[in-house]
Amino acid sequence: MNILYEAKDKIATITLNRPEVANAQNAELLDELDAAWTRAADDPDVSVIVLRGEGKHFSAGHDLSGGGPRPDKITLEMVYGGEARRYLDYSLRWRNIPKPSIAAVQGRCIAGGLLLCWPCDLIIAAEDAKFSDPVVMMGIGGVEYHGHTWELGPRKAKEILFTGRPVTAEEAEKTGMVNLVVPRDELDTRTAEMARTIAAMPPFALRQAKRAVNQTLDIQGFYAAIQSVFDIHQTGHGNALSVNGFPILAHLDEMKARIG
């Protein structure tokens, strides 16, 4: 199973379960993940949702292994439709689920990994956590759910995009992207403590508090920006297709070296 699900004591825990590939996201994982989010949202006995990753790393992002059949011709229309569904619509839906959510992040959280943790209301990071988006070297201006400016501020966002370097857990906490940094062996325990504290609050009040903050961000332009920058992302794919097909795999070694 790509996703594990457990609901207990008002807390639903969703676990990314592909540790052998650092929880890289294939289509099946993302579809199962969306189903798990929906299950937790629809369960009246669940007050808080926790998202975590099994193994050493939270998520290495999209699975770029190249496995499985590939069509002879890839068009921008094909790329756009699949990414709009799984990389944008899913993330926005998870962000707006009317229950508090917490991401527990350890190890690497690379590119597509950001579109899993950024939609969560809180992020608790292990001391070894590193967040990166190195896709500029692919000719693309940033991952599909482009929350960089909102999460890091404009100058730090530009720095990590321009250089591809990782942001440490400590740096992420300073920008406000991460709520709490804890020792790796305490990550699950401290996340559970936070979840229990929140679960003790009145559910409707939690819903209204989340709605108030999210709507404030939307009034400031968050939702419109995420939608419009997704189209900018797609122009990168269009350019790559016009140059020599879809040359993502050619950049894997360079990306690995850049993020360490």
TrEMBL record:
InterPro entries given in the database record: ClpP/crotonase-like_dom_sf, Enoyl-CoA_hydra/iso
Family according to the record: Belongs to the enoyl-CoA hydratase/isomerase family.
PANTHER family according to UniProt: ENOYL-COA HYDRATASE, IP11341P-RELATED
Source organism of the structure: Gordonia insulae
Protein name listed in UniProt: Enoyl-CoA hydratase EchA13
Name of a matching Pfam family: ECH_1
Molecular function (Gene Ontology), one example: catalytic activity
